[in-house]
Amino acid sequence: MEQVYHHRLPKLSNILSFETAAKTGSLASAAECLCITPAAVSQQIRQLEEHLGVKLFVRSKSGVELTEPGISYLAFAQEAFETLRVAQQNMAQYQGDHTLTLTALPALASRWLMPRLYQWMDRHPEIDLRIQATHSLTDFNTNPTDFYLSFGDEHYPQQDKIELFRDSVIPVCSPGLLQAPAPLDNPEQLFDYPMIHVDWGRDGRFLPDWSEWLLAANITTRPPNPGPSFNLSAMAIDAAVAGRGILLGQQSLIREELQQGKLVALSSLALPLNKSYFLIYPKRILNKPKAQELLDWLRQQADSDRT
C-alpha cells in the first residue's frame, strides 16, 4: 500500500469501525454492534487504511486478524476512545446526572441483589438507580451499564473488578416433600426423591451437579435420580419450593427461602462453584455521583455473606 501521511485526522466513524472489528474479529459482528451493514464497516476500514497508508487487517473467510501495524494502531485508538469516554463521564457532574445502572444475571439480580438493594435506595433517594438483568456479556463501550455483576471475570481483562464471593451448593427441598426430619441421617435417603437438575449450557462445567455431590458424599454405586431439568436457576428454585424434587441450591440464591422455611437443607455438605462472582466496572464511572459509595456498599454486602 502506498505510504501516505495526513495531518488531518481520520473520520471518527472509521476508527470506531476498526476498533469494533478488532474487538469482535468479524466485520459482520462489528456491523451488528454498530447497527450498520457489513459492507459499510468494510468500506470505513478501507478508508482508514488508505488514510494511514498501511494494512490494518488480514481478511479471511473466518473473519479478520490484525496486522502488526493494526495491533499498534488499535492500542492508540482504544486509549483515545477511553479518554473521550472519561471526558463524557466527567460532563455528568455539569448535567446533574444522578443515574447509576447495575446489570446482573437474572437469578443473581432477583435473589441476591434486589433484597439488599432497597436499603441502599432508601439511603440515596437522589440517585436514579436502574437495574438490568441479562445472560449476555456486557460491553461497557456500547451499553449504559456502570456496574456488572458477572459470573467469572475472564471476559473483562481491561476493566476494574472486585471479587464478591464464591458460591456453593447444598441439597435442599420443600419441607412438605420430606418423609423424614431434615437434615437426613443418611445421604442414601436422597434417592427417595426426584432430583432437580440445572443445565447452564457452556457454563455448566462450573456448577457442581448431582454426580459430583454424590461422589463427594462417598456414594458411587448409584447414578443420580431423574427429575425435571431447568436452564435457569430461578426456575429450579421455584420447582424445589413447589415440592417437585430435591435441588442442589446455590446458597446465595436460596437464603431467603431457607430463612422463611420454604426450603430446608438436607445435608451440610456444600460444594463450591468453580468460579466466583465479580463486580466489573470501568474506572471512569467512579467519577459519577455516589458510584464509589455503591461499589463500597456492594463489597460490604458480599463480605457480610462470608461472616
Short description:
Belongs to the LysR transcriptional regulatory family. The chain is an alpha/beta fold and 307 residues long. The chain has helices spanning 12-24, 27-34, 38-52, 68-90, 92-95, 106-123, 210-216, 233-241, 255-259, 291-306; strands at residues 57-60, 63-66, 99-104, 128-133, 147-151, 160-165, 168-173, 195-198, 229-230, 246-250, 264-265, 271-272, 277-281.
Task: Please provide a written account of the structure.
With 307 residues, this protein is α/β, with parallel strands linked by helices. It folds into three domains: 12-90, Arc Repressor Mutant, subunit A (Orthogonal Bundle); 98-166 and 276-306, 3-Layer(aba) Sandwich (D-Maltodextrin-Binding Protein, domain 2); 168-272, 3-Layer(aba) Sandwich (D-Maltodextrin-Binding Protein, domain 2), CATH 3.40.190.10. The protein is built from ten helices and 13 strands. Strands 7, 8, 9, 10, 11 and 12 form a six-stranded mixed sheet that branches. The chain is elongated, with a radius of gyration of 25 Å. It starts with 11 loop residues before the first helix and ends with a helix. The model has no long low-confidence stretch (mean pLDDT 89). Residues 18-67 form the HTH lysR-type domain. It holds the Pfam family HTH_1. Keywords: DNA-binding, Transcription, Transcription regulation. This is DNA-binding transcriptional regulator. Belongs to the LysR transcriptional regulatory family.
Give the helix/strand layout.
Elements: H1 12-24, H2 27-34, H3 38-52, E1 57-60, E2 63-66, H4 68-90, H5 92-95, E3 99-104, H6 106-123, E4 128-133, E5 147-151, E6 160-165, E7 168-173, E8 195-198, H7 210-216, E9 229-230, H8 233-241, E10 246-250, H9 255-259, E11 264-265, E12 271-272, E13 277-281, H10 291-306
Parallel strand pairs: 3-4, 3-5, 8-9, 8-10
Antiparallel strand pairs: 1-2, 5-13, 6-13, 7-10, 7-11, 7-12
Organism: Oceanisphaera arctica
Keywords: DNA-binding, Transcription, Transcription regulation
Protein name: DNA-binding transcriptional regulator
